[in-house]
């Protein structure tokens, strides 16, 4: 058995093995990939749109996001990523980054060279499937995000995003008693949900008044999970988790 000491890629291995059990050889092949741990400050850009990345990035600690800018400088956050997410496997084949990857607050990411990932995929079909699955999961989340921003009102889309983040953070053990750290500003949420910061403030204030969320510093508590799920029309099927989609915090 592999050592019990935390390995940088353990969160990604855990994510894979919620679906498919790896053999010891396959697991060790992942652990043997060259890796570089990078600790970042808040608002650090890991990849800049237009760059030619040479490494894939796995989130070890913190939250990172993908974003794009309009010609006038308006930001749209495309997705958030939590520990265990391999954010940009697609850059192995897409040589030029078509979006920016940035940290929310201080974070730790693990960089793995493209060539090493590609060789592992070629040598171990199970790892190739795992990498492929991860990119397909990203696409599934993007489809739901498009529906959320394009067809749901601000109240519904806000509840939906909070539910999604809660479920994804719970999967990696970062929710305790319905409470989780969410170091996003109202501007971040507004840019992810396609509303103005003023409108975002009003939605969140109403949620707090109704007792749907409790905010304390950078932490959020969801006292009534079923109520928030109903408001957000949230069905976690698109996250392709093991087990029921109506998850309780």
Question: If you had to describe this structure to a student in words, what would you say it looks like?
Answer:
The chain is of the alpha+beta class and 249 residues long. The chain has two domains: 136 residues, Jelly Rolls, CATH 2.60.120; 87 residues, Arc Repressor Mutant, subunit A (Orthogonal Bundle), CATH 1.10.10.10. The chain is 40% helix and 20% strand. The chain is built from eight helices and eleven strands. Strands 2-6-4-5 form a four-stranded antiparallel beta sheet. A four-stranded antiparallel beta sheet has the order 8-9-11-10. It has a three-stranded antiparallel beta sheet with strand order 1-7-3. A hairpin with a 2-residue loop joins strand 8 and strand 9. Helix 3 crosses helix 4, helix 5 packs across helix 8 and helix 6 packs across helix 7. The radius of gyration is 18 Å and the shape is globular. The two termini are 32 Å apart. The N terminus is likely disordered.
């Amino acid at each position: 058995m592999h050592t019990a000491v935390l390995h940088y890629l353990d969160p990604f291995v855990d994510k894979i093995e919620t679906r498919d059990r790896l053999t010891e050889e396959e697991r060790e092949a992942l652990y043997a990939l060259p890796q570089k741990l990078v600790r970042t400050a808040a608002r650090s850009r890991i990849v800049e749109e237009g760059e030619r990345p040479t490494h894939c990035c796995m989130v070890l600690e913190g939250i990172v996001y993908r974003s794009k800018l309009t010609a006038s400088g308006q930001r749209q956050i495309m997705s958030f990523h939590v520990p265990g997410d391999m954010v940009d496997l697609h850059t192995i084949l897409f040589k030029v980054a078509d979006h920016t990857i940035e940290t929310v607050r201080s974070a730790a990411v693990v960089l793995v060279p493209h060539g090493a990932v590609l060789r592992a995929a070629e040598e171990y079909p199970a790892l190739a499937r795992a990498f492929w699955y991860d990119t397909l999961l990203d696409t599934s989340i993007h489809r739901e995000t498009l529906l959320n921003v394009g067809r749901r009102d601000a109240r519904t889309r806000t509840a939906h995003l909070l539910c999604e983040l809660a479920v994804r953070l719970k999967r990696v053990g970062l929710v305790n008693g319905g409470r989780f750290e969410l170091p996003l500003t109202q501007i971040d949420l507004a840019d992810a949900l396609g509303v103005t910061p003023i409108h975002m403030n009003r939605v969140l204030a109403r949620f707090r008044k109704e007792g749907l969320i409790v905010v304390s510093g950078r932490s959020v508590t969801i006292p009534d999970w079923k109520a928030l799920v109903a408001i957000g029309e949230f069905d976690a099927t698109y996250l392709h988790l093991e087990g029921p989609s109506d998850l309780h915090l």
